Model the fold of this input.
Amino acid sequence: MPFPYYETHLPKDFVASFGPSALEMQRREIRDRAGILLRLGYGEAETAARCEAWVNWEFELNGKPAIAAEVKKLVGEVFHRSAPRR
Done:
């Protein structure tokens, strides 16, 4: 006997929004991690390497995620945004 409450009936446009919002969440996570590492005194290259390693570890069972291509760019944004102005 099937249980009807096990079957979800979500609108297709709602389900379609999962991918973009998950990608934006991953971008925020990388920016946050880069900011923490920056404040701890790590350099840009080491921060990018650590963030890439985190992404690889986090998604090792699911294959390479879309966010993997953006890690260096996101870390660079954090470091250049915090650079002192002259």
Q: What stands out?
A: Residues 29-86 form one domain.
